[in-house]
Design a protein that fits this description.
Blueprint lengths: L2 E2 H8 L2 E3 L5 E2 L1 E2 L9 E4 L6 H6 L4 E5 L11 E5 L2 H16 L5 E2 L10 E2 L4 E2 L4 E2 L4 E2 L4 E2 L4 E2 L4 E2 L4 E2 L4 E2 L4 E2 L4 E2 L4 E4 L4 E3 L5 E3 L5 E4 L4 E2 L4 E3 L5 E4 L4 E2 L4 E2 L4 E2 L4 E2 L4 E2 L4 E2 L4 E2 L4 E2 L4 E2 L4 E2 L4 E2 L9 E3 L4 E2 H17 L1
Parallel strand pairs: 4-5, 5-6, 6-7, 8-10, 9-12, 10-13, 11-14, 12-15, 13-16, 14-17, 15-18, 16-19, 17-20, 18-23, 19-24, 20-25, 23-26, 24-27, 25-28, 26-29, 27-30, 28-31, 29-32, 30-33, 31-34, 32-35, 33-36, 34-37, 36-38
Antiparallel strand pairs: 1-3, 2-7, 21-22, 38-39
Length: about 325
């Protein structure tokens, strides 16, 4: 796709400084900018590359004042970081433009219901009495079981597996390898020390505008529903156990694991490899830094926690200073 400086400025409500007819055909990081590329400058640590970049177009803040000559055409916007996100979304949406296509190598049934302009790739399977909303894209090799309800404008990438009876909202993106609705890890010990499987008869309910990364799993509830709220972002290789509830707009990085029946508040942020024990309640706006381990309730909103078990960051840094001092003394 070709993007002129003039068009970009109009789209992002910015102004052009330089050749308004300059055209970019690809995106590149500022340190890798070459002719034909569009880059952006938002972090002061990268200012040196502004003056050496060979990119054709460079997005910058309106307040930026260059200290040396700049070769690229500048498009000045209110917030360069936000602007590049908007521009990437614009280009992505153009590439994902909905088109009606149902491969003859896919399989569905007379009871399957499709909305308008639904794409179904080869070797995908959609079960009995399942509904798929308008403009959804189901790529190749996707399995969707019976009695599911899929919203509008969803994108399921190859290898997604959705068990029967799941409910998924509008604008949901599931990346390759995602499994929605597998049985939770429920087992009861027998007298002889062996394990008896506990059946899981609930489902998973996913809200609107949710994205789940590759090879992440969300288990079905034992009873009732495992719930993923609106606007949630789940990275690759995350594990959400049975009967977990995740509040709206919470985000978690890779390898986070949440044990069964825990309730996560709204607008929480979890770094990579965070582990949360079962049957806990986590307050809204909680931030847990990477490799944090949670073994008790977090009742105070807005806390930033670190360590295992987690404690407030300021308290942790004081303790860490003592650890280092003790290590030097040894």
């Amino acid at each position: 796709m070709e993007l002129s400086a003039r068009f970009i400025a109009q789209l992002l409500r910015g102004t052009v400084e330089g050749n308004e007819n300059a055209v970019a055909t690809r995106f590149a990081k500022i340190e890798h900018g070459k002719p034909g590329a569009l880059s952006f400058y938002a972090n002061p640590k990268y200012e040196e590359y502004v003056y050496s970049s060979e990119a054709t177009i460079l997005l910058v803040d309106k307040t930026f004042q260059p200290k040396h000559p700049v070769k690229p055409t500048l498009v000045r916007v209110d917030n360069a970081y936000r602007a590049i996100a908007d521009l990437l979304k614009y280009v992505s949406d153009k590439k994902k433009k909905a088109r009606r296509h149902r491969s003859l190598r896919a399989r569905w049934f007379w009871t399957t219901r499709f909305g308008k302009r639904v794409y179904v790739g080869a070797y995908s399977f959609i079960g009995h009495h399942t509904e798929v909303g308008d403009e959804s894209i189901i790529h190749e090799h996707v399995y969707i079981g019976d009695n599911c309800k899929i919203g509008k404008r969803c994108i399921f990438y190859p290898g997604v597996r959705i068990y029967p009876g799941m409910v998924i909202g509008d604008d949901v993106i599931l990346h390759s390898g995602v499994v929605i609705g597998a049985d939770g890890f429920g087992n009861a010990p027998r007298e002889d020390g062996s394990w008896e499987k506990i059946e899981h008869l609930g489902n998973v309910v996913i809200g609107n505008d949710v994205e789940i990364g590759a090879n992440s799993t969300v288990d079905r509830a034992q009873m009732e529903s495992t719930i993923i709220g609106n606007g949630v972002r789940i990275d690759n290789l995350c594990m959400i156990a049975h009967n977990v509830i995740i509040g709206d707009h919470t985000a978690m990085a890779a390898q986070t694991g949440i044990a069964g029946s825990t309730e996560i508040g709204k607008y929480c942020i979890f770094g990579g490899q965070v582990g949360i024990a079962g049957h806990l309640k986590i307050a809204d706006h909680t931030t847990i830094l990477a490799q944090g381990g949670v073994i008790g309730h977090i009742r105070k909103e807005g806390e930033m926690l670190v360590g295992s078990p987690v404690i407030p960051v300021k308290q942790y840094m004081k303790a860490y200073a003592l650890f280092r001092r003790a290590a030097r003394e040894d």
